[in-house]
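=== Structure Prediction Worksheet ===
Name of assembly: unnamed complex
Input type: mixed (protein and possibly other molecules)
Chain count: three
Listed entries:
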Amino acid sequence: MTMFLATLLSPLIGGLLLGVIDHPRLAARINVATGIFTFTFSLLLAMQVLDVQSLDAMGGWFHLDAYNVFLVVLTTFVGMTTTIFSGPYMRHELEAGRVDSLRLRLYHSMFQLFQLGMLLGFTSNNIGVLWISLELATLATVLLVSLYRTPASIAAAWKYFILCGMGIALALFGTVLVYFTSSSVLGHGNAALTWTLLHAHAAELDPAVMSIAFCFLMVGYGTKVGLVPMHAWLPDAHGEGPTPVSAVLSGLLLNLALYALVRCKMLVDDATGTDMAGHMMMGFGLLSLAVAALSLHKQRDIKRMFSFSSIEHMGLMTFAFGIGTTLSSFAALLHMTVHSLVKSGLFFTVGHASQAMGTQKMSEIRGLIRHHPGIGWGLLIGTVAIAGFPPFGVFTSEFLLFIASLESYPWTTLPLLAGLLVAMAGLFRFVQPMVYGEPSEQAIDVHVNMLPVYVHFALALALGLAIPAFLAGWYEQAAALIVPLAPAGGGA
Amino acid sequence: MSSVIIQVAQALLLLFLAPLASGFVSTCKARLQNRRGAGVMQPWRNLRKLFAKDVVLAGHASWIFRTAPYVVFTATVMAASVVPALLVDTPLSLTADVIALVALLALARFFLALAGMDIGTAFGGMGSSREMTFAALAEPAMLMSIFVLSLSAHSTNLTTMINHTLNTPFALHPSLAFAFVSMLMIAVAENGRIPIDNPDTHLELTMIHEAMILEYSGRHLALMEWAAMVKLMLFATLITDLFMPWGISVQADAAGIALALLLWLLKLAGLLLALAVIETGLAKLRLFEVPEYLSGAFVIAFLGLLSYYMLEVGA
Amino acid sequence: MSAALIQQLVDGLAALMLLTSFALLAQHRMLSVLNWFATQGLLLAVTAAVVAYGTDNSELYISAVMTFLLKGLLLPWLLWRVIRQLHVHREVEPLMNTSLTMLVALGVTVFSFHIIEPIERISQLMTRDSMAIATACVLLGMLMMITRRKAITQVVGFLAVENSLFFAAIGSTNGMPLVVEIGIAFDVLVAALIFGLFFFQIRDTFDSLEVDAMNAHLIHRDDDE
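=== Predicted Assembly ===
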């Protein structure tokens, strides 16, 4: 209980403190310190949860089980490495004149408040509070996307705000509909929004209302996940903001939205007893994979390209959760973990690359491996990892996903494979000339801190080779929780 | 027998009070504008003067031009006589169908428009085209708001509707409120009052109704103007019948009729005063804004329909 | 007050809410948009108070007061201040002309009634008739967001959607739990503040508040998209 409070208070205090401190270097150090504290507390919390199946905190308002505990640790870990990365990176931006010290202050405090929102969302037991924290996390990042005050970044932030605001309003409507039916079962009041109680009584909820509610929740939370066709905000928002922001948006916020969607799916599956929710998720997932893989080829900006890769992977995960078998859920959970690690590492690398080359256009970044071997190798390894090559974790999860789809819906395996190959081709087509190729004249020297990147990639590699027993245990428990009570539909 | 007398009396009352009503509106407007006005009897004096004058016809005027005033006047008076004002159940009550009413008014308008185009002047044609455009938009709105009212009475017959309203206990129905607002907007438009058309204007380019009767003189003009006054009276009575019929006499006894007459006059006075206030307070809309106004009236009437189904059925 | 009278009151308020949503779509001037938005907030507060009286739910009274202060007074005032400081051009030109927008709005209302009707039949509450109207208002707010050119009216459309969601919550459930309501209200307030900040940023960078000006920058950004 205290550990849980500590995990939440740490980013809160850090965020408030950073709001008043004006000194850039000191602020960066406090940012890193907050990140380290939050991570340590969350590790201790996770170890507590390791002993018990699940943990209720603060009188049932918060709930930790196998599904969200590793996500909490993942969030705090990536948050910590991002703060380590962001220190020298933002200092360089400050010196280059792209931000001033006031905006840097905003950046630091909003970063920690974003972290708080994420942790609140993951651990909340009340689906209303889950909604509120997702909205909070979005609001914290909106001003960060427009940090550079360029026309394109302001336009991107506006699009982000309006589209995600719309999506989240629809999700709220879905939540209201869930409350509508649950209040007749669990009575008016907070009990009717408590996830654990809802899950226990899911079979008593009205199927028609829950189906309509899930339609709204799917579109609403799906907008935040970045599923096609609600994805229009994602490439702009991830491409225009500062790199640490892109890293956490791609690596963490999308996870929270998908987590919320799956929690709702768990309720709907038991309420309706049909596969409607799963089929919807599969449809959106496949569509996202296809569109993202094809759109990848048309990009000119490196961050936009990798954000389309994020859309593709979120599509894969949504598809996997949609299949609804234990194996596919296991694959999806593993994928959530490794994707966060690799994608954020990639964004760090990309950030350094664009700083070194002074541009984000892929046609102007060349020959990284000559002048900046650290960045070059990082980009290469990261692309290899995210494209799904063995022995990295992404390959493992995608392989498991293939098996799962072959078992349940064999006809989807071919589109899956095709989409992944198209995406892989697109990634390498752009990355190869950036890494090799004739180095251009405008390269400058930057202080590069590639340690977080390599740590991320090493973890992804480790997860690909051998998943530690406790983690595998959590994945299995969570998968068992996610799979509906009624047998999931078999395909052919 | 007595109901027949009352029916005839009702029709004559409407006919002869119409100029007074028009004069009342003008006097109220004048007082609101700090003038003394020409007096409530001025329309009577105008009509008397016009009936005494000669008719001047254009050389190439066709029979339509000569017969239109009579058709318009007769149709309007027929419509007015059918609307119950004092007694609910009159011998003509079977024909007191609101749709038939609208049809009669449409007939009058049709001939009016033809007359405007008959001589071939520019202003006449302009007035006719404007009138028909606005009529095309106003009529659906009026029918929609009448339908909203007929939904609960299950009939478009005025007598049935009035009886239904008198017999059901008073309740705050959003659909009726919407229909009322819509009907008021339409009534202003149909009678050519501000903010749609200025009846006192002398600027031909801004005219709608006046432009169509620009070429008339003598008794023809008198009939056309009288028809317009009767139409105003008709709409006012229609609104009181549909939305506030309390006080109307159900039996043909003297006390009831007297009370009904008094209440009817009071309600009319209230509506006409409201019209005068609206005319004084608002500015005339530009012509391209009128379709917006009319579609707004339609939308409000439709909202009444929707709120009937959404809120009142099965509630 | 009898239950039937409260039911009628709620129905009347729901009809007025629908009217305000339509009115928001029809306005040309920025100030009249804000006035109608404030009216909508006031109607929400009154509805919450009436339902609170009818169900003896004291939490809903607090919600009603909060709604009145936030959505009836604070938000319109914030937006009014922004309009004044930015000297925004008072005319608002929509994408489709008003008559066409009205017809589409009517179609949307009929559609939302059609999809919500099966849910309404399940409900036992006295406010169940207003669920279809609340859904219609949500969709109409979205229509407003789509058909407007200026950033400020888009934001008013967004806030109108949030208003309608609150109305839906009252209509379908007699009010969500207070904690959730407070959280949502807080979110809306922060969103409005951020929007306010945004308007200045947009104005400074683009010299206008037209959304098309912003989109132009994004279209050039990415080729063949």
